[in-house]
Amino acid sequence: MAVIHADKLLTQRMLRGEKAAFDEFFDSNFPRLYRFTLSRIGNDEDAVKEIVQKTLCRAISRVHTYRGEAALFTWLCRLCRNEISDHLKRLNRDASRELPFDDAEVRAVLESLDSGDGDDPTKLVERDQLGQLIQTILDYLPVRQGNVLEWKYVQGLTVAEIATRMDLSQQAAQSLLARARQSFRDGFSEIAHTELDVLLRN
Asked: Which residue ranges does the chain devote to CATH 1.10.10.10?
């Protein structure tokens, strides 16, 4: 509820035309929407930027319709999915068959579901639902936490390399990584009641 309250205050400031509110809106949402889009269409940087920019522009033009029934980022993801769908249709790709996630943790969880019943409709539905759930949790992580998880588990950087990239001490980088892992565990456990200790082990 605190997040939604803060989101409503931000959109009210935007409606009053406060430049700082628009800057905050862009700075806090562009990186997360970028990752959200990248995981769904692949490594086409120009297309990802275009989709995210279109999403944010559409959101600004429709910000008066935001009622706070869900978090602002959830609302933005709905708009972004429409832009992604339009993009994939232009490429003659079936949006319903796109894998909506590309994180190491996500892949590992999904692999644990796969018992070889590739044609089992129930298994396919479970796989898609779980994948979307985990991707949503990753999308909601604070930007710094999302970054360190991606660098550590997707790009394979060491803590020392992460510390250098973020201009932190190794101890501070390790602490940030631990908080990011905990945030991911908490988010997943709260929604899915599933342990991810094996996936997020050092």
From this structure: 104-192
